């Protein structure tokens, strides 16, 4: 029986690496797109690449979502059965500093893939677009967001992703391409980039546990997010493309926690005692060490976004039913996974 062939953009990222592992376990031939760089950025997939069992099932190609020719040539060469577009400039804060680049990669990059699929007319190819809860914003009184909720993004990243969402829908309806959006709420893991708030926190607190004297500066501690584990969510990406017809799905846990609550949970796992004082920009966290208070966290206005999204929680009942989605990880288990990994990393750095 011929193996399915999958193409993953953004394969060096958190989701891309977990998805590659999942597909290889399912006996796919996996191709990934990586950007040419003067430094190596393949840390998350090196263990896959060097595994001799993957020698004939895992391939990497140089390409860039800002370059139509490279996108077209890679797809034409591979002729994949499934395409997972996970490539993006995915940091919301950075998108305010680099809005044009964010639009090129996270927005128009999707169009370039869809155009290649249209021109090549590859029969039965299935396309997955990684969408985001940042599409929603907070523009009306609704506590949870589902597939029918109103979109109103509040960042250049969200706007770029909104373009990707709708252009995916347009190509599905106009050209009959099997194209689906996964509207994924925040999902984290030990492989999360260190500039994202959850990983910032776990990296900092594990180093603090081992004696670091640093202070962590953060922005909006009241911001609430629906956090899941990337391992659960990449399985849903695969399940979305196994449906008989293309559809869009919200993937979320249905629970929302503040950044402060995330910190408290991390501290509890590490058995650290934290005391919060002050409010707003004057809020601080101290760690109790031998009955002495040591400054741990301080709010800094530099880390507030120009346009904040304060609350996101997803309604994934459609995914629960049609995809049989049942997350294996609670937030507590996610935190434990991240803390365990970052504690080992912090120990290795001290050697």
Q: Main beta sheet: strand number and arrangement?
A: 7 strands, parallel
Looking at the structure, what is the overall shape? globular
Task: Output the number of helix runs.
Answer: 11
User: In angstroms, what is the radius of gyration?
Assistant: 21 Å
User: Which strand order do you get reading across the main beta sheet?
Assistant: 3-2-1-4-5-6-11
N-to-C span? 49 Å
Uncertain spans? none
Class inferred from helices and paired strands = alpha/beta
Mean pLDDT, all residues: 93
Beta content comes to: 15-25%
Percent range of helical residues:
25-40%
Q: How are helices and strands ordered from N to C?
A: EHEHEHEHHEHEEHEEEHEEHEEEHH
Q: Total strand count, please?
A: 15
Which oligomeric state applies?
A: single chain
Q: What descriptive keywords fit this protein?
A:
single chain, 351 residues, alpha/beta, seven-stranded parallel sheet, four-stranded mixed sheet, 11 helices, 15 strands
Word description of this protein:
The protein is an alpha/beta fold. It has helices spanning 14-25, 46-49, 68-78, 92-97, 99-120, 156-175, 197-209, 230-240, 259-269, 317-322, 331-350, and strands at residues 5-9, 29-34, 58-62, 82-85, 126-132, 178-184, 187-188, 216-218, 224-225, 228-229, 249-251, 257-258, 274-277, 284-289, 292-299. The strands form four sheets. The protein has a seven-stranded parallel β-sheet with strand order 3-2-1-4-5-6-11, sandwiched between helices. Strands 8-15-14-13 form a four-stranded mixed β-sheet, covered by helices on one side. A two-stranded parallel ribbon has the order 7-10. Helix 7 (197-209) packs parallel to helix 9 (259-269). The longest helix has 22 residues, at 99-120. The protein is globular and about 70 Å long. 44% of the residues are buried. The mean pLDDT is 93.
